[in-house]
Design a protein that fits this description.
Elements (H helix, E strand, L loop, with lengths): L2 E5 L25 E2 L9 E11 L2 E11 L7 E7 L8 H15 L4 E7 L5 H10 L6 E10 H4 L15 E4 L5 H14 L8 H5 L9 E5 L2 E10 L4 E9 L1 H4 L5 H9 L1 H4 L3 E7 L3 H11 L5 E11 L3 H9 L5
The structure holds coenzyme A.
Length: 321
């Protein structure tokens, strides 16, 4: 049976809609769009969709977000093969063709992030390995909980804000405060690089539940969130200056953010903790996960595309029948 690969053009046939995650379906319009549909100011990508067709019938879909600005590599957002065609090399061959396409557009690498415990992850990991992607590395802890489950956190609303400090909505951060943060980071480098707030709020943030902490010395903490959909909030980035963070003093920020969920219309949460922040990861495991719905790890992998010629020739190889 012949399998062919084709870059999709709009309008994409409705039969492909079920071949990616609901959160990414809007990208099948194949027009520049934020990766998260409910966060219009999130990172904009140019979606690229490549299909595998078997006897002209859709057999698989790969969806990629190409960066429109900045130096982040393109991201493989999903790879899906219809159940009847799985285990026959279609996923591997589609990925090979896709890598060739991305390389031919001048990109040096392609990345992906996926949930370790998802049912398709073992097969996906095999496909990545076969295509020479890096061994998937743990990236984040991903916890999901409802507003009701959050009410059970034993620390919720139990820790007062440190004297002299106040919590404020992040949308009220003044330009002067932002400049002070950027300047003090440049001088002293006191914020973990991946938790600097401007990295997470520059493309927008959820305005009701994202909060900061002002101290007499300026802004020293933040909890920056994004809406995943109308009801689901993601706690994306949280940080408090070390000396202010002792004895759980980031907890009033988390509490305030959770308390504001109702006002923002959110009933569910995702909480993301990068695993290399050991203190935060330990806190999540000990003080949140036991009362939460689920706790999962995400894994990240990348493929170097520095040899486009080699990748293209691999893409030409037909899948094993
Ligand atoms: C992951 C997926 C795209 C793979 O597509 P595919 O066409 O079946 O892939 P291939 O046939 O090229 O290769 C599948 C590999 O996974 C292996 N595999 C299949 N099921 C497996 C399982 N349950 N556990 C471990 N390995 C498994 C196969 O043996 C094969 O590896 P091998 O060639 O080393 O033997 C497909 O299973 C799928 O669509 N899953 C649902 C969507 C999904 O989870 N996508 C990934 C995250 S976005």
């Amino acid at each position: 049976m012949t399998v062919t690969f084709a870059l999709l053009e709009p309008p994409v046939a409705p039969s492909f809609e079920g071949m990616t995650f609901p959160a990414y379906r809007h990208l099948l319009a194949l027009a520049p769009a934020p990766t998260l549909v409910h966060e219009p100011t999130a990172r904009q990508v140019q979606p690229l969709a490549m299909a595998a067709l078997r006897e002209r019938e859709p057999a698989a879909l790969a969806l990629v977000g190409l960066p429109l600005e900045g130096d982040e590599p393109p991201e493989l957002l999903s790879l899906y093969v219809v159940p009847a065609s799985r285990g026959q090399g279609v996923g591997r061959a589609l990925l090979a063709a896709l890598e060739g396409e991305i390389a031919s557009r001048g990109f040096a690498s392609l990345g992906t992030v996926f949930t370790a415990s998802a049912p398709g992850s073992p097969a996906f990991s095999r496909v990545l390995a076969a295509r020479g992607w890096t061994t998937p590395q743990p990236r984040t802890l991903l916890m999901r909980f409802s507003y009701e489950q959050a009410q059970q956190f034993p620390w919720l609303n139990r820790y007062p804000v440190r004297e002299g400090c106040e919590i404020f909505p992040w949308r009220e951060l003044t330009p002067a405060e932002r400049q002070q943060l950027i300047g003090s980071q440049r001088e002293r480098g006191w914020i973990a690089q991946d938790l600097v707030p401007w990295r997470w709020d520059e493309h927008g943030f959820e305005p009701v539940t994202s909060v900061g902490m002002r101290s007499p010395e300026g802004v020293v903490g933040w909890v920056i969130n994004h809406a995943l959909d109308e009801n689901t909030l993601r706690f994306t980035c949280s940080y408090i200056r070390k000396d202010y963070g002792r004895r759980g003093r980031i907890l009033p920020l988390y509490s305030e953010s959770i308390n504001r969920m109702k006002e923002g219309g959110f009933t569910r949460c995702s909480f993301v903790a990068p695993l290399h922040h050991a203190t935060m990861a330990a806190f999540v495991r000990r003080w949140m996960a036991p009362w939460a719905g689920t706790l999962q790890e995400t894994l990240g992998s990348t493929k170097s595309l520095v040899s486009p010629a080699a990748t293209l020739s691999a893409a030409m190889a037909p899948p094993e029948e």
